[in-house]
Amino acid sequence: MSETTIDTNVLGEKIVRVLKTIYDPEIPVDIYELGLIYDVFVNEDYDVKILMTLTTPNCPVAETLPLEVEEKVKSLNDVKSAEVEITFDPPWSQDLMSEEAKLELGML
Fold first, then answer.
1. pLDDT given for residue 23 in this prediction
2. Alpha carbons 79 and 76: distance in angstroms, whole number
3. What is the Cα–Cα distance from 56 to 49, expressed in whole angstroms?
4. Which of 27, 56, 89, 108 is the most exposed place for a label (fewest CB within 10 A)?
5. How far is 107 from 85, CA to CA, in rounded Å?
6. pLDDT on residue 4
7. What secondary structure, in 3-state letters, does 22-75 show?
8. Distances from the Cα of 23 to the Cαs of 17, 30, 66, 70, 76, in angstroms?
9. What DSSP state is assigned to residue 95?
10. Which tens digits make up the pLDDT trace of 68-103?
11. What φ, ψ does residue 12 adopt, rounded to 5°?
12. Helices 8-19 and 64-74 meet at what angle, rounded to 10?
């Protein structure tokens, strides 16, 4: 069998590691722990689609943050393309933050 099957779990973990290097400029916590990433889809062609939100629709990085996410995910060797889709449904709330993020921000 010369066919290589993609291990989407391994690639997913790599993508999460990259997402954890991207920070919201106003909050000293990465976007993954903040709960801004709703979903990551990877298909067999190594195309990645990320469904994410922003803390507010008027977020000062609404233009640049999705681009940064796309660029950093695309920089992974296994990724052919990356697309970020912004959604405000459901709207972001502090409930989406990880325990780690809440601890970091003194909310626990």
1. 93
2. 6
3. 21
4. 89
5. 29
6. 53
7. CECCCCCCECCCCCCEEEEEECCCCEEEEEECCCCCCCCCCCHHHHHHHHHHHC
8. 12, 4, 12, 14, 18
9. G
10. 999 999 999 999 999 999 999 999 999 999 999 999
11. -60, -40
12. 140
Over 50: is that where the pLDDT of 1 sits?
no
How far, in Å, CA of 94 to CA of 61, rounded?
Answer: 18
Structure-block tokens of residue 80: 């052919």
Reply yes or no on whether the pLDDT at 59 is more than 50.
yes
pTM to 2 decimal places: 0.88
Do the beta carbons of residue 96 and residue 62 sit within 8 Å? no
The residue whose two tokens read 């909050």 is 27
Distance CA 42, CA 108 (A): 34
Q: Can you say how many angstroms the Cα of residue 97 is from the centroid of all Cα atoms in its chain?
A: 13
Residue 2 confidence (pLDDT) above 50:
no
Query: Which residue's structure tokens are 């695309």?
Result: 74
What does the mean pLDDT of the chain come to? 90
In this structure, the chain runs to a length of 108
